Every structure is written in C-alpha cells, then in structure tokens.
Amino acid sequence: MKEVLHSAARDGCETVLQEFQMRIKTLQKKPTDLKSFASYVESKSDIGEEVKELMSKSTTVDDMYKLLGTFDVKISPSEHVKLDDLHKIHDEFQESIDMAESDVSTHLGKHAQTLTQEIQKLDQDLMDIMTDLGSGEATNPHAQTSDVLQMLNDTKNQIDLIQQKSQTYTHYQKLFHMSPHEYTNLESARKIYDEKQVIWAAMGKWQETIEEPVGWLGQRWHDLKAEDLEREVQATLKVASVFYKQREDDVSKRFRDEMVKWKEYMNTLVPLGNEALRQRHWDKIFAKLQRPYDKDMTLNMLVQWDVFSIKDFAEEISGVASGEYALELQLEKIEAGWKDFNFTLNPYRDSKDIFILAGLDEVLTLLEDNQAGLQTMLASRFVMGIRDRVEVWDRKLSRLSETLDEWLAVQRAW
Fold first, then answer.
1. Is 236 exposed, middle or buried (0-12, 13-18, 19+ CB in 10 A)?
2. What's the sign of the alpha-carbon dihedral 199, 200, 204, 206?
3. In the Cβ-directed half-sphere of 316, how many Cα atoms lie within 13 Å?
4. What is the pTM of this model?
C-alpha cells in the first residue's frame, strides 16, 4: 500500500510540475501578429479557467507526501527537489498570469484595430464580388457558358474563403470582447451568386446535352429517339421560360430563345424520327435536300444541311410512312394468318384412303375478311409503297377462293 501511494505521489508530482511548466511557457510567448495574438488570448483564458484544478492537483500531491511522512516512508533527495520546485512554481505561475494579463491589456487595442481593418477588407472584397456579378461576364449574353461557369466557380471559392475568415474574425472579436460584426454583404453576395449560378448551370447542362462529341449533335440520328429529345426540349424550355419570366434580362432571354429555337427544330425532327420511315422515304427527303442519303448521318449534319427548311415536306413524307406502315402491319397479319393455317380433312364415308375437306366455315370467313381487307388497302392512298405485295396476296386469295369453290362442287357431286 505504501509503495502504491509513494509511486502515485512521485508520478503526480512530476506530472503536475510539467503541467505548470507547460502553461508558464505558453504564457511567456510574445505574439506579434493578429492570429498568434488571438491564439494567445484564447490560451490565456483557458489557462485562467484551469488554475483552480492545477492548484487542487498540487495540494493532492502535498497531501500524499504528508501521508507518506506519517508512515515513515523515505523520500529521495531528487523527490524533495521536485516537490520544492512544485511549491516554488506556484508563484512563477501566478507571475506569468499577471504578466500575460498586462501584455494582453497593452497590445489589445493595436490588434483590435488590425482586426477591424481586416473585417473592412472582407467587406470591400464582397462589394467587389457583387459588382463583378452584377455587371461582369455573368451578365453578358454572348459569353461562353464554360468560361462563365469557371468564373462562377472561382467566385464561389472566394465567397467560401471569406465566410471562413468571417467566422474566424467573429471568434477573435468575442475573444477581444468586441461586438461581432454583421456580414450583411456576405449574405448579399451569396444570394447574387446563387441567382447567377443557377441559370448558367442550367445553360451548361443544356450544352452538355446537345454538344459534340457525346451530346445529341454528335450522335447518329438513327440512334436517337425523337420522342426523348422532344421531352427534354419541352422540360428545358419550361425551365428557361420561368427564368425569363422572373428576370427578363439578356442572359435569361438568350436561354429562352435557344430553347424556343430547339422547340421549332423538333417540329421537323419528330417527323424525321418516325420509325416507319424506310429507305424509299429517306431517298425522297434527301432528294428534296438535293444530296444523297447517308444512313450514318448525325444530328449536327441534319442541322448543317438545314433540314428544317423542308419541314412541311418532311411532315408529309412522315405521314405517308405512318400510313404505309399501318397497311404493312395489316398485310403482315394476313400473311401470318395463312402461313401456319391447316385445312381439316375427314375420311370419305368408310374409306381409309379417300379424304374430303371439312370444317370450312372458319376458312371461308377468314378468306372473306382478308379479301375485303386487301381491297380496302388497295383503295388507300398509302398503298403505293407496298402495292405489289398487296396485289400478290389479292391474287393468291382469289385463286384460293376459286379453288375452294371448285373443290366443294366436286365433293357435293360425289
């Protein structure tokens, strides 16, 4: 038990002594700049709050050595020296505190003035930022979107840095017992930045959507879906229109005008995105453009070739293609219906090797319906592209009808 107490006293004495020495060393620093002075003031304040705890630890060490004395425990000379150092350091510690208080009181005014000047610089920087945002490239409708977005990103970094500094300076003001500065310019600059950034970001996103090489303009036209393009254009136009309604400035007008242009483009592109268009239709369209059809054409090629100049013709050809496609589907249905059709054969009376056609009601109904459908198709103005196929099937079914009539006449005569 004595050994445990002795060890705790010896270790406690050394630890508390080191704690006093460390704090004295901190208090004896002579800060010169604002940052180090503020750190010094904060350390001094923290140490002031630790005085009572340190003195309590020192008293505890004394109490342990007194208890060891009652047990006649031998204390080494080096321990006596450290214990004496601990007693002496109390006065040195208090002197360091008093000196620190005096130093802070002497230099506080100078550093408070420096702090005020730094805060004024932040306010001026914020005013400059607001001026640039209100009259610089962010308001230029002819500026490159990528350049403006880079500028806005740099501005955001500036504002973020100023905000960090403002928080630090507010902390300093509290340490110096000054009234905290209200950074109203910071809030204003952030608001103006947000207003500029949101519209230029939307414009940047649109450019990424359309620009080569990965955007729409760089894609093969036949790999794009016109319906998806139209949906995206409509959604972005809605966003651009809201911006213009809210701001009515040159930048929002540029964005809205760009989207109105693409909306007009879609009046031609949607018909050209009709999946019913076949080679024969494209040949007609490109003949109108006076150039050969290129199946690997990109959207940018169509734009460069001014396909929008033949909007009405493109709509007309697309409508014809849709009509022909509907007839093709009907014809394919007729073809599929007869492809796997099987006639029913029944034995003739008791014969095992003579058969007659039976159950022809379904056949005759199908035949009649299909022949009527083919006649309707031949009368359609959209039949030209598949007339040959329709006429072939009309002849096939007419021949089948004649054959069945003869066949049934023979069966009835048996």
1. buried
2. positive
3. 8
4. 0.76
Per-residue pLDDT of the chain (414 residues; tens, 9 = 90+): 889 999 999 999 999 999 999 999 999 999 999 999 999 999 999 999 999 999 999 999 999 999 998 888 899 999 999 999 999 999 999 999 999 999 999 999 999 999 999 999 999 999 999 999 999 999 999 999 999 999 999 999 999 999 999 999 999 999 999 999 999 999 999 999 999 999 999 999 999 999 988 999 999 999 999 999 999 999 999 999 999 999 999 999 999 999 999 999 999 999 999 999 999 999 999 999 999 999 999 999 999 999 999 999 999 999 999 999 899 899 999 998 888 788 888 888 777 788 888 878 888 888 999 999 999 999 988 888 889 999 999 999 999 999 888 888 888 877
CA nearest to 54, candidates 78, 19, 89: 19
What phi and psi values does residue 70 have, to the nearest 5 degrees? -70, -20
218 DSSP assignment: G
* Residues whose CB falls within 8 Å of the CB of residue 324, separated by 6 or more in sequence, listed in order: 276, 278, 382, 383, 384, 385, 386
The whole-angstrom separation of Cα 205 and Cα 299 is: 18
285, 313 contact by CB (below 8 A):
yes
Question: Is residue 168 within 8 Å of 42, Cβ to Cβ?
Answer: no
For helices 34-70 and 77-135, what crossing angle results, to 10°? 160
Helix H or strand E segment including 355? strand 355-358
* Interhelix angle 226-247/250-272, nearest 10 degrees: 160
Lookup: tokens for 87? 């007693």
3-state secondary structure 221-275: HHHCCHHHHHHHHHHHHHHHHHHHHHHCCHHHHHHHHHHHHHHHHHHHHHHHCCC
Cβ(52)–Cβ(97) under 8 Å? no
Contacts of the segment 294-301: beta carbons below 8 A, 24+ positions apart: 295/222, 296/220, 297/220, 297/221, 298/212, 298/217, 298/218, 298/219, 298/220, 298/221, 299/216, 299/217, 299/218, 299/219, 299/221, 299/224, 299/269, 300/212, 300/217, 300/218, 301/221
Question: At 277, is the secondary structure helix, strand, or coil?
Answer: coil
Identify the residue whose tokens are 């394919």: 332
